[in-house]
Write a structure and sequence with these properties.
Strand content: 25-35%
Largest sheet: 7 strands, mixed
Radius of gyration: 32 Å
Number of strands: 34
Number of helices: 18
Strand order of the largest sheet: 2-3-1-4-5-11-6
Bound molecules: guanosine-5'-diphosphate, magnesium ion
Oligomer: single chain
Length: 687
């Protein structure tokens, strides 16, 4: 029994911890962080997300949208140990920020609610934790609003987890409200006090028998991986309390169960129990380093889990130190290159960075001015750089916008800002389209891109204008012709003369362009023939419908020249004229890019997804259950690029925000009729 009479007296020797707060969008992660900070005395008063006073959502973008749009950090002290909590955004569009944090944390607290609609989101997040082998607790939040039995809630949520959800607490109901809880490991009952520690009460009557039953269920689950415990249960022997705690800790750390705690973040109910569970049961940095396969000698090792470009402090790399010490002036390397020399070690608190002393194993700190360190990098101080400890790849992007600086003078600044933007958030990709001259930002969804443009304006002071990116239309021909291109000018002085007869004919889809020289008898001298080809190419850049012309064969078959007036330039012009005059007679037709799209969604949304695809000129190729994901499907289809443009917005709304897709160019297809006419008219209007 500990000094406070409620917990076994174990002094933690595990060093500073790092814990991720994850979970579906709006489940209360930022609020829980606020409650933790208030409970540990780190902040004076518990702020709120709704009032815009939370520490977690302190960035301008987060305040504006009233949601977390990037990982935020806060370090506090609890019972003599340091804990850094990372509040990770819950929306799938910002999930990459969570992914890069996970490898470095000791454990995650998955904040969730008893809401059936959020089960797929929960599954998505648990899957990330399962794949990365992160020990995890579930914190069943908002129990002030509970309208069903907790056991039913667990049944509802269980399909989202691959390992058993292990109920550690059961509620004490007073009428329709939950007034407190029974801790099944401690076998003690508590009533909630708002913003204060819960009070111990005696258990009696029905509450006591419910406790016995629930405790037995918990022990049975634990016993699945503990034969000695199983025997005790079969023989009706009460296992000692310490043994139960040891099992709880071990099975959490082995990731074979996911313990469930209850609470209400807005009133700070259940927060103390959560902190104590973390203190006693979550692994420490040594175990986390082992999980990552770190074989450290004496030198420092750390993982960069987030990058900030601050207005005043410059670049800050938030890193979890896994071994050794990192102080001001430590030189660090990444597996690829030098990371730089640490210029300042800071404690990250929301958007604030406070200077602190050297960091040692376990600490999560911001390191100043590591120019060569990108998010996700493994840092080490030894002569020989450590190999990468984690490899987290962003999901392929699904939505794009073309952007340009609102003011031309900002063009250069915009380029620099792109580097910072993608360094802060590697799930954004910036692509320069050489053909359309578009600068395109690819991201994970509508809000993701909106926040990216806001960040450009607010953080980097480059306001941008955006529009949908250019679709890669092409055109081709359907009819062969023969035509003469003749360029003749004799207005004073030196004249110009070029004359080329070409045969233009269609070629199969995907073959591009071929030029053939069939001149005999030197009617067009050898040295002018490349100029004719260049002229033809000029003419293909912009076909009669307004798009680049592809899939055709052009043969130079005849022509004539003038000994004085002919030149490369004149033959180039003749070649171009042959095209501009010839192509309109070749029955030009529009070509549009078709991609193969693979959509993943919860099965109950599959019918809706099929309807969306058909409504967007998609051709369904088939659907199947998603491999390794119970309750999910994969739908494959071919779709025009123009229809994929904003497809994700519909997919997300049909799947409670969890559906996604990847796509790959497949082929160009002819497009005729009204849609084609509209595209051609729009192109003309734009010129
Ligand atoms: N009733 C109730 N509301 C809560 C609780 N925790 C959070 N909320 C509310 O749920 C909303 C989302 O909370 P937030 O912390 O932003 O969720 P996040 O998206 O997971 O960070 C806010 O309006 C909170 O005030 C809770 O325990 N009970
Ligand atoms: Mg949040």
């Amino acid at each position: 029994m500990g000094q406070n009479g409620t917990t076994p007296n174990v002094t933690s020797k595990l060093g500073p911890r790092c814990i991720a707060l994850v979970g579906p969008f709006q489940s209360g992660k930022t609020t829980l962080l606020e409650a933790i900070l208030a409970r540990t005395g780190t902040i004076q008063r518990q702020g709120s997300v709704d009032a815009g006073t939370s520490l977690g959502d302190a960035s301008k973008e987060a305040r504006h949208h009233k949601m977390s749009v990037e990982a935020s950090f806060a370090t506090c002290n609890f019972m003599g140990d340091s804990y850094t909590f990372v509040d990770c955004p819950g929306s799938i569009e910002f999930i990459h920020d969570m992914r890069t944090v996970l490898p470095a944390v000791d454990a995650a607290v998955v904040v969730c609610e008893a809401d059936e609609k959020k089960v797929p989101q929960l599954q998505l997040i648990l899957r990330e934790l399962e794949d990365q082998n992160i020990p995890r607790f579930l914190f069943l939040n908002k129990i002030d609003k509970a309208d069903k039995r907790v056991r039913e809630t667990i049944k509802l949520l269980q399909p989202a987890s691959r390992v058993p959800l292990l109920l550690r607490q059961i509620p004490i109901w007073k009428g329709d409200l939950i007034a407190g809880f029974v801790d099944l490991a401690l076998e003690r009952a508590f009533v909630y006090k708002e913003y204060a520690a819960s009070e111990i009460i005696d258990l009696a009557g029905e509450d006591l028998s419910r406790e016995k039953e629930a405790r037995f269920t918990m022990l049975e689950t634990l016993a699945d991986h503990d034969d000695a415990l199983m025997e005790q249960l079969l023989e009706d022997i009460q296992p000692p309390r310490d043994k139960v705690f040891d099992d709880l800790a071990k099975e959490l750390r082995d990731r074979i169960v996911c313990p469930v705690l209850l609470g209400c973040a807005t009133r700070s109910n259940g927060v103390l129990r959560l902190l104590k569970a973390l203190r006693h049961e979550a692994p420490g940095v040594t175990e986390t380093a082992q999980r990552l396969g770190l074989k450290a000698g004496g030198e420092a090792a750390a993982l960069v889990i987030k990058t900030f470009h601050t207005t005043h402090g410059g670049k800050m790399s938030v890193a979890r130190v896994l071994a050794g010490q990192i102080g001001d002036g430590t030189t660090l390397s990444t597996p690829e290159s030098e990371a730089g020399r640490v210029s300042g070690v800071f404690k990250a608190m929301g958007q604030q960075f406070e200077k602190r002393g050297a960091a040692s194993a376990g600490d999560t700190v911001a390191l100043g001015k590591l120019d060569g360190a990108r998010t996700g990098a493994t840092l080490s101080s030894g002569k020989q750089a450590l190999p990468a400890l984690a490899d987290v790849q962003p999901s392929p992007p699904v939505l794009a916008i073309a952007v340009q600086a609102r003011e031309r003078k900002d063009d250069v600044k915009l380029g620099v800002s792109f580097t910072k933007l993608t360094e802060e958030d590697p799930s954004l990709v910036v692509v320069h389209n050489a053909e359309s001259h578009d600068v395109v930002i690819w991201g994970q969804g509508e809000m993701h891109l909106r926040v990216a443009t806001e960040r450009l304006a607010d953080r980097y002071a480059v306001p941008v204008v955006s529009r949908p990116p250019t679709v890669g239309y092409r055109e081709t021909i359907r009819k062969p012709i023969s035509i003469r291109g003749r360029h003749k000018k004799q207005s004073g002085g030196h004249g110009q003369f070029g004359d080329a007869v070409v045969e233009i004919k269609p070629m199969p889809r995907g073959s591009g362009f071929e030029f053939e020289d069939r001149i005999t008898g030197g009617v067009v001298p050898r040295n002018y023939i490349p100029a004719v080809e260049e002229g033809v190419l000029d003419g293909l850049k912009h076909g009669p419908l307004g798009f680049p012309v592809v899939d055709l064969h052009v043969a130079l078959v005849d022509g004539s020249y003038h000994t004085v007036d002919s030149s490369d330039q004149a033959f180039r012009t003749a070649g171009r004229i042959a095209m501009t005059e010839g192509l309109p007679q070749c029955q030009p037709v529009l070509l549009e890019p078709i991609h193969e799209v693979e959509i993943v969604c919860p099965s109950e949304a599959t019918a809706k997804i099929n309807a969306i695809l058909s409504g967007r000129r998609g051709q369904i190729l088939g659907f199947d259950t998603r491999e390794g994901w119970s309750g999910w499907d994969t739908v494959r289809a071919q779709m025009p690029e123009s229809e994929i443009g904003d497809l994700i917005i519909e997919v997300r709304s049909a799947t409670a925000g969890v559906g996604s897709f990847r796509f790959k160019f497949d082929h160009m297809a002819e497009l005729t009729g009204r849609t084609a006419d509209q595209i051609i008219a729009a192109r003309r209007a734009a010129e």
